[in-house]
């Protein structure tokens, strides 16, 4: 498990790819990669995973009405471009013990697009 200092140092590294993210393409990535388990609707409806509407800026493990793992609750992250960039390619590597079994989004362009899309869901 990474220590808090290592996580913080890793999250400080900004990716130029994020600046190039296309929210419209990210919408398509969401529906092919994420929608099987997540919703992204203002009504807050959850699915297998928590609703991701408004996820950017939210503290990890805090959406009311969703039963998070203790690992996610204890991760003490705030979802922003940097944390999402580190989390989405390997969720279980960044936060061991979470319930999310997704192997990760490895394509940097798709990752940037998805993050751009998540930023629009407010």
Feature tags:
122 residues, mainly alpha, Cytochrome Bc1 Complex, Chain D, domain 2, 7 helices, 43% helix, heme binding, Cyt_c-like_dom_sf, heme, signal, metal-binding
* CATH 2nd-level architecture: Orthogonal Bundle
Structural class: mainly alpha
User: Termini separation (Å)?
Assistant: 32 Å
- Structural domain count: 1
The fraction of residues in strands falls at under 5%
Explain what the structure shows.
The chain has 122 residues and is an all-alpha fold. The chain has one domain (4-120): Cytochrome Bc1 Complex, Chain D, domain 2 (Orthogonal Bundle), CATH 1.10.760.10. It has seven helices and no strands. Helix 3 crosses helix 7. The longest helix is centred in the C-terminal third of the chain and has 13 residues, at 108-120. It starts with a helix and ends with a helix. Residues 5-17 have low confidence and may be disordered. GO terms for molecular function: electron transfer activity; heme binding; metal ion binding. Pfam families: Cytochrom_C. InterPro entries: Cyt_c-like_dom, Cyt_c-like_dom_sf, Cyt_c_1A/1B. Residues 21-122 form the Cytochrome c domain.
What is the compact description of this entry?
The chain has 122 residues and is mainly α. The protein has a single domain, classed as Cytochrome c-like domain (Cytochrome Bc1 Complex, Chain D, domain 2), CATH 1.10.760.10.
């Amino acid at each position: 498990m990474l220590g808090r200092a290592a996580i913080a140092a890793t999250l400080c590294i900004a990716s130029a790819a994020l600046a190039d993210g296309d929210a419209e393409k990210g919408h398509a990535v969401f529906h092919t990669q994420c929608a099987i388990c997540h919703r992204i609707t203002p009504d807050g409806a959850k699915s297998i995973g928590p609703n991701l509407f408004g996820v950017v800026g939210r503290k990890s493990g805090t959406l009311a009405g969703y039963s998070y793992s203790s690992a996610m609750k204890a991760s003490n992250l705030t979802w922003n471009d940097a944390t999402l960039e580190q989390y989405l390619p390997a969720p279980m590597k960044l936060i061991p013990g979470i319930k999310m079994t997704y192997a990760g989004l490895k394509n940097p362009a798709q990752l940037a697009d998805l993050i751009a899309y998540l930023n629009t869901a407010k």
